Queue: 2 jobs
Job 1
Amino acid sequence: MKILEFFLIAILLLALTAIPVHCQSANESVVEKLNALVEKDKEGLINATQDLVKIKSVRDVPQAGAPFGEGPAKALNRALQISSDLGFATTNLYGYIGYAEYGQGDEYVAVLAHLDVVPEGDGWTYPPYGAEIHDGKIYGRGAIDDKGPAMAALYALKAIRDANLPLGKRVRVIFGCSEETGGPDVEQYLLREKEPVSGFTPDAYFPAIYAEKGLMSFDMSKNLTDDISDNISEEPRGDIRIISLQGGTAYNIVPDRAVARIQAADPDQVAAACDAFAGMTGYNLSAEIAAEKDGAARTIRITSLGKAAHGRTPEKGKNAAMQLIAFLATLDMGSAEMSEAIRFLNASIGMETDGKSFGLVMDDEPSGNLTLCVGLLNATPERMVLGLNIRYPVTYSFQDVMGRFNQTIEGTGFVAENWQANQSPLYYPKDSPLIMTLTRVYAEQTGRNDSAIAIGGGTYAKEMPNIVASGPMMPGQEEVEHQANEYIAIDQLINVTKIYAQDIYELAK
Ligand SMILES: [Zn+2]
């Protein structure tokens, strides 16, 4: 073989092995172009994020044109101003929600972000509305939830426009203003606008959330007859009477503290029973006997301490209210109805968080088991109320859960009422086109092989048809949203923008 031929063959072989690597993504040059444009606009993106973080957009009393108060309306106006300065058409839907739009076509792809924030709280190192940059991070309430991601989506759309890429669908970056407080921003949007054909909300984790459990919050309550209330002071029976039970602050948080106020003819006996029960169970219960006599019966205060946890993972907590119920179930009450109610609660719920004894065991592969969180406990001699937060797996329905629930409470006098929330599950199979696209783009941009995630719910994706949550958090990233010293790292802001640019392009092309 002549040397020249050898070289030609060698070059040919090299070229052949190199080609498949180079053609892995048909879009490679498109993606490179988009990524470069995102880098070029880095300063604008940082400034826009800072601008919005500086506006305190916590929900407040409604005003004309500002249904969620002055702050959210100001943030919406600013975001739309930034959008129109970048050359996008904008629409403000009466201060509820607004959007920037680009492109042509009947159908559109949506990125649904939110501009409202939760209150800042205490414990900040840097001013919560200062948007100061330290160590490459923008600090402030809303930096990652969800103002940074909102601007990332807008600058992603700008990159697509500047790259002059042909799109088959319009694209909207939608700015909601009441995500944190449960609406009705998206509801107002859907009254006036057609729904998107696909899209995502940049308000959770990468690569994408493919399953969000169904969620319901409501009261389980019962009216009681206080059958010893008239004679307790004149004619003590030696019976125990509950004056009040109180525990918890919200439906979706496991109570870390609950208190019972009790009257008893022999308070020392109750206190001793409490100590013995605490010793036996390991529950943190303590009894304190009031100094002065209240008629013949003296008051005892029993405090139960547990551990708080989010309603989507109640098994991580220790329910102080149900610990208290467990102890009270061992006592003989003067009121037979109160006694019955407490024993029913202890037997049918107790310390369980999966609804097993209530007949609510439900489980599926995509999303795991049903969770039940007793978030609130309130009782007087006349009424017992438990605030429940139930999250059920995605292949079950509201009727499945409530059918079984009503069966268990039948004949107990308890009713389900005062509904606070009722969201259907959200489920896109992992091989659905939307989840596949978001997962592939994420893998191409980051080189990571994470798979789509199931959560206890619920994001904006439950309110807007045809979208799922995707980003801005990396799997396993430290959670800073809703906490002091919330921040978004500038590197992450840029990377997220690159991923979103490719996402939007792939969904809208
Ligand atoms: Zn959010």
Job 2
Amino acid sequence: MKAEVHDLRGSRRCAPPRLLVKGQRVTLQVPFLPPNEEMLNDVIGEQTYDALAGADRGIRVPMALSVLNEGQYEDRLVSCNHLIDKRERLRKQAYALNSQIDRKRNNWEKKRKGSLPTVVLRKQRHLDALWRKVRRLDREVARQVASETVWWCEQHNVKTLFFEDLRSYQAPGGRGDLSWALNTNLWGRIFDTVRYMREALGHRYGGLWSVNPYHTSKRCHVCGKVGIRVEGKSSTTQRMGGEYFYCSHCQTHMHADLNAARNIIHVQSRSSAAPGRTNVACPCLSNLQ
Ligand SMILES: [Zn+2]
């Protein structure tokens, strides 16, 4: 028995879960256990990684993925709408509450001095809690999107994954509630999580490159001509912020984010429709810049 326990302890490759108590909040920390080679081979079999993939920050979904494998493209839109809807609801609540508090506080301060009434303080605490929830949902979205991306990459033997560069912020193309414009902070978190997970699976630097997305969403991935955004799968009239991409030169219809993801794969090559800068996503390099 003792020997068995000793063996088990020896083979454990990460710390045990911990309960942390901080003030009134309790957090359960479960350390991430990267699968070892045996486990990986069991689940997905031995494989050679040789495919290239591109990831684009989508307008209506957090992540659009496209992989190029032996001349064939395969696409995937990663969404987690229930979490994003919830996040939007909470954000709206928080903004409403914020303006309420501002109004109450102004009224109070006009009339008298001294500390604020309990009503306002209570509302303020409620607001803080709402923002904490929004940030927690952000983390959850990043984790889910990243793990789905990494898993999909494993299934498609992706060696190198090209990401849109973090420093290029594009104004959201959608309208109002319909658009899920991923903010730069969240995109950076997804990027870091993907790198961390892929490094744990044995890819050097996570096999990630970041590319300058200049023109990747405007040009056609087939012929390289500038195309337009349209609303539907078969419409040909321009609509700003439309979900689909249409190239009038070669009649290509395509989901706009997937078109961009396919362009991102080729940014590094000279024959690309939208040539640009490419950086290896190496932690030591990003520290230098
Ligand atoms: Zn075209």
